[in-house]
Amino acid sequence: MKRIGVLCVGNDSPGINSAIRAAVVKGLDLDIEVMGIRDGFEGFLKDNLDVLLRPNVSNILHQGGTMLGTSLFVPEGEELNRVKEKVEQYGISTLLIIGGRLAARSAINLMKIGIPSIIIPATIDNDLSFTDFSIGFFTAIENVKNALDVLHSTAESHHRVMLVETMGKPSGWIAVIGGLAGGADYIISSAEKPNFDELIEIIRKRYEGKKRFSLVVVESGVEIPEEIKKECKVSEKESSAIIVGRYIEKHLKELGIEWRYTNLGYLQRGGSPSAMDRIIATQMASHAVEMVKMGKVYHAVGVKGFSITEIPYSDTIVNYRPVDYYLKELTKLFY
Question: What region holds the Phosphofructokinase domain (predicted)?
């Protein structure tokens, strides 16, 4: 019987439990034993792992987060040799590494010392170069859309500009797609240089017309030009969304515009996974186990449309993937 180890590296994302469940069920079907490694490679080095059976993964499909826990620890140097010792100690033939770019970095490091693995992409940022979609992205943009729907009513009632800060730097996927789905009136992301003149003009036209409110989505950490920071007299530690708010206040003072700021933060990452995240997680994890059965390792699993893909490891799998140009341009139709 082959034995694989499943662990998470990096931040949690909704749908990871769906992937763990699928790996266990598929493993049992193919006569492959699955060991759940808790708290990533940190837990592995502390012997924090157990064999997973059907009862262990029952009723987790709808749960957010990860039942195995996770950590940001990426093994390097001497730590890689310790991981190799643990792999040999427990008779693990392949590691299934669930996560984003930290998972990819870990897999590349392990490959260099001969530890087989397969990456299952899971990050709400959706910024991995080898897959169209990552586990957790669909839930994250649904959460952003829901937040914008809620803020819409209070923005309209009080005639305010609502600044909504999202995660996702520097790929722009959450801000652009979440903002587009939630009817944002303007989106500022790392995908392109912010145009503050355009922003002010759009808000001005709305207030001079019948729509005296605006929803502006700002990606956390988006680069704000130095001249804008100096003009608004803000510190280096001030969030990008707040700088945008102060700029709006300064340049539209004659209209008496008020603005409010909401940082969605970890609300984007939590909660029960959406249907799409459950489906792609189940597809990719099941396929990863089939690859183990065939002896095919050192590959990342991905999706192109609804088709599963297998991408050989290379240094490029850690690259960022910016939001598609067409989707970015599509948002401008609604400004």
Answer: 3-292
